[in-house]
Amino acid sequence: SAGTMLRWTTALSVAIVVISALIATARWWRRPQRARLELPLAVTATLALLLGTGRGVSPQFIVWLLATAAVLFTVRPRVALWAGPLLLAIVVMTAVGYPLAFDLLRDGEHWPALLLVYRNVAVIALGVLLMLYWLWPQSSAGEGVRRDEVRNDGL
C-alpha cells in the first residue's frame, strides 16, 4: 500500500543520513585535516542516494545535486573525470523527462516514464559510486586520494 511504501522510503532516507553522518564523524575524528576534501564528497554522495531512493525526483532537486557536485569537482577535480559524465546524463534525462516530454508522460506514454526510471537508477549509481570512492578512495575510480590533495588553496 501507499502508506507502507511511504514508511519504507522514509526509513531508508533516515538510514542513509544517519549512516553517512556516523561514517563522516568517525572518519573526521581520526583525520580532521581531511575534512575539506571529504565533506563535499560525503554531501554529494548522500544527496544523490537520498534523491535516487526518495519518493520523487523533481527537476529542482537535480539542481541541488549540481550545486554540491560543483563544489566537489572544485575541491577534487579528478572525481569530475568519471562522475561528471554521469551527472551530465542525469541532467539530460531530467530535461527530456520534464519539461520536454511531460505532456506525453501525463498522457500515458511509456518511454518518458522509462527514461525517468533510468534517470533515477543513474542518480542511485552516482551516489553509490561516490560513496564507495569516499569510503575506499585508493581502490575507487582508478586513482588515489593523494592526487586530489595537491589543491591547497584554501578550498
Task: Explain this structure.
With 155 residues, this protein is an all-alpha fold. Helix content is 77%, strand content 0%. It is built from 6 helices and no strands. The chain has helices at residues 2-30, 35-53, 59-75, 77-100, 102-106, 110-135.
Give the tags:
6 helices; 155 residues; disordered C terminus; mainly alpha
Short précis:
With 155 residues, this protein is an all-alpha fold. 77% of the residues lie in helices and 0% in strands.
Describe how the helices and strands are arranged:
Blueprint (H helix, E strand, L loop, with lengths): L1 H29 L4 H19 L5 H17 L1 H24 L1 H5 L3 H26 L20
Which structural category do the helix and sheet elements fall into? mainly alpha
Radius of gyration: 17 Å
Anisotropy-based shape: globular
- Biggest β-sheet strands, sense, barrel: none
Gap from first CA to last CA: 47 Å
The helix/strand order is HHHHHH
What's the number of helices? Answer: 6
Q: Which parts are unreliable, with pLDDT below 50 for 5 consecutive residues or more?
A: 140-155
Extended strand count: 0
Instruction: Quote the average pLDDT.
Output: 85
The oligomerization state is: single chain
Q: What proportion of the residues form beta strands (DSSP E)?
A: under 5%
The percent of residues in helical segments reads over 70%
